[in-house]
């Protein structure tokens, strides 16, 4: 059966059909592009906000930790601070005294002799087997100036190079007198600081009583 061509005028209800072009699909509209751009911006903003918050939180945590360390240091007991100050004062006093003693011993060797006599006098009555321990240079001075029978008892001299010049230790089987330079200076500093504390406490008590009376 042969095909029959019908003119367009004879079929008014029909439309002309054309072969569609391959790859000619329509692209995104302006509205779609705008929505895509807005979505991308919102996503980027959210990611940046999260990153900023994380960095901010880390910085805040670091600052809080530093502040806590400062507060902990400020909350340390004042007694510990006082003890540290005392130790520093004793160390400073000993260092200064060593220099002074060296100079004094060059000009007046009798200083160490006086220290030995004082230490021997502090021994209990009837002490026996007395040993006087001195720095070697001080031991030579004491041997020249003192006799082993002074203070009414026999005693011998022993040398100890670790001792600071200007001091000594007097030892018996039952007792010991520490007349080292460090010990004597420590006692002086303790008395001075203790006296200042007593005065401070007395002043505080007096002010408190005065406030109560007012």
Describe the protein's architecture and organization.
The chain is rod-shaped and about 145 Å long. Helix content is 61%, strand content 8%. It is of the alpha+beta class and 214 residues long. The chain is built from five helices and four strands. It has two domains: 41 residues; 128 residues, hypothetical protein PF0899 fold (2-Layer Sandwich), CATH 3.30.2320.30.
List keywords for this structure.
214 residues, alpha+beta, hypothetical protein PF0899 fold, rod-shaped
Protein topology:
Layout: H1 30-74, H2 78-107, H3 110-121, E1 130-134, H4 136-145, E2 155-159, E3 168-171, E4 176-179, H5 181-213
Parallel strand pairs: 1-2
Antiparallel strand pairs: 1-3, 3-4
Helix pairs in contact: 2-5, 3-4
Mean pLDDT over the residues? 72
> How many discrete domains?
2
Helix content: 55-70%
Q: Give the name of the CATH superfamily of the largest domain.
A: ATP synthase, E subunit, C-terminal
CATH topology of the largest domain: hypothetical protein PF0899 fold
How much of the sequence lies in strands comes to 5-15%
Describe what is shown at a glance.
The chain has helices spanning 30-74, 78-107, 110-121, 136-145, 181-213, and strands at 130-134, 155-159, 168-171, 176-179. It is of the alpha+beta class.
